[in-house]
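Slide 14.
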Amino acid sequence: MPIPASELILNRDGSIYHLNLLPDHLSDTIITVGDPERVALVSQHFDSIETMIQKREFVTHVGNYRGKRITVISTGMGTDNIDILLNELDALVNIDFVTREARPLEERIALRIVRVGTSGALQEDVPLGSHLVTEHGVGLDSLMQFYPLVETGLEVEVATGIQQALGLDYRPYCVRGSDLLREQLGAGMLVGNTLTCPGFYGPQGRVLRLDLRLPNLIEQFQSFRHYSAEGEFRLTNFEMETAGYYALGRMLGHEIVSLNAMVANRATGEFSPNPEESINDLIAKTLDRL
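Slide 15: predicted structure.
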């Protein structure tokens, strides 16, 4: 059945509503960054740039790097933006904009999506300036309250354990990212489990003028452990998007990995004096490995 205009919203030029992109603008490999200004930090390495598009916080550059066509897109912050991004990227490759019908299951296209972002370390042994590839994303946000995410036994156990440890009224979600991309891109990086928070201040335990409902939040994040046949599970770092990527990627059938440059360490109270150096190194490393 055709998807109604109110659900699949297109601009006058036929592009998808928020991203302002046409199917031809996508390569099979997409790099995503949070900060719109960071798109140019990626595309400056391209041998050529064929397209530059901007709408709201979504900035897109399409170009070629050593013979490979790559699309880089900014997302803004938060899993609400990731909900827009992933659904619209998927629509661009898996919905016919003329007939408004989804591709048959056997013809679905799987994208490779690499998040390159900054993050804060939760553990002392995750040093400033290091690069970390996320194995599992754990979401404290409410996005998966609206989707039929299927989690593995371990993922449910971890999410339930965090709910109990924090005394939350809802169960977080836990999702493993792409093993394929983690193997390809994560060589030599720390491997960790990333906590995705629905805000930068209170949800990450920061206190300016407002007190917290959970005053020992950081200590609870740091001390959480879950033990299973697969070993010890701990939370290594946190940010605001990864779990949303992994959950939507699983349901839509895309390969997604999150790469993190550590610019702060909440265990030691440090913030990097030169965060740009770490993120620029991560960008160059990612491009070379793609």
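Speaker note: The chain has a mean pLDDT of 97.
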